[in-house]
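Researcher: Sequence recovery benchmark, item below. Answer with residues only.
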């Protein structure tokens, strides 16, 4: 992967610290939720999500909370198991090494496209779903409330962007993988600065890189106070190009990766067999520990 610009030229080894860790209400007591499928009432609707807990979960350890959203036509189970071009939970659990609780929510057909499961977020109902999951999970399990993250591919990236817009103060960072604005953006831009990793294929035939990828990226770099990069970076042959924007608000970096490819979560540079999305996003979010 080719780097064009770095926000951390002199301090590349330093990590961005969070505020003092805030323990969720579930810390210090026996777990009240188990791994597996759960149903929750959200304003009269039954919504489902799947939990993946760390091995040897301890109520005395504050874990990251990572939401992994599926694409159009996917499901919570598909993300948990892997499929449709994705590894389980976007390849993050092996990298987390039992330091995170993973949540795979189920979308719904209502408000979505082509009568398929997605994240139409009509009236903000998918944001309400996330709020309800956070409340339920953090009351039952031990979470560092300063280390909430969201990622997803395509429609899963769109709902992650919608969370950046509506819940910037609740999430430390989002990872938008070939996403767009289909889930809306409350207020038209993020409600505050939010650390963001974003990747998009230059030949994306489903969600155009200009009208979707770059458009939402530009709202984020504006919200974070970052300086744009001109001319617009391009992939270098069969190697993705990675840009870390300068002058962003302290603690709110933005990384943009453009690759020569289509609408896929599984892009890997030439010579690599592992999709780059998981390792890239894990490296990005790990700077906040």
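Model:
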């Amino acid at each position: 992967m080719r780097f064009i610009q770095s926000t951390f030229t002199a301090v590349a080894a330093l990590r961005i610290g969070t505020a003092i860790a805030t323990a969720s209400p579930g810390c210090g007591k026996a777990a009240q939720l188990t791994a597996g499928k759960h149903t929750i009432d959200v304003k009269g609707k039954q919504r489902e999500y799947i939990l993946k807990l760390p091995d040897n979960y301890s109520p005395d350890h504050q874990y990251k909370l990572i939401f992994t959203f599926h694409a159009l036509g996917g499901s919570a189970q598909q993300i948990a198991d892997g499929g449709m071009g994705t590894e389980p939970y976007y390849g993050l659990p092996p990298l987390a090494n039992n330091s995170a609780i993973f949540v795979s929510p189920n979308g719904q057909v209502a408000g979505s496209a082509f009568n398929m499961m997605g994240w139409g977020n009509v009236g903000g109902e998918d944001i309400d779903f996330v709020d309800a999951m956070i409340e339920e999970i953090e009351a039952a399990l031990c979470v560092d409330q300063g280390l909430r993250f969201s990622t997803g591919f395509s429609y899963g990236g769109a709902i992650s962007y919608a969370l950046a817009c509506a819940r910037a103060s609740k999430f430390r960072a989002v990872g938008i993988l070939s996403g767009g604005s289909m889930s809306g953006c409350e207020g038209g831009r993020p409600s505050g600065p939010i650390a963001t990793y974003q990747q998009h294929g230059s030949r994306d035939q489903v969600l155009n890189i200009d009208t979707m990828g770059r458009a939402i990226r530009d709202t984020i770099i504006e919200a974070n106070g970052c300086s744009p990069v001109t001319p617009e970076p391009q992939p270098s042959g069969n190697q993705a190009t990675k840009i870390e924007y300068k002058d962003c608000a302290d603690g709110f970096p933005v990384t943009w990766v453009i690759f020569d490819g289509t609408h896929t979560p599984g892009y890997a540079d030439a010579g690599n067999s592992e999709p780059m999305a998981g390792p890239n996003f894990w490296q990005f979010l790990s700077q906040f520990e």
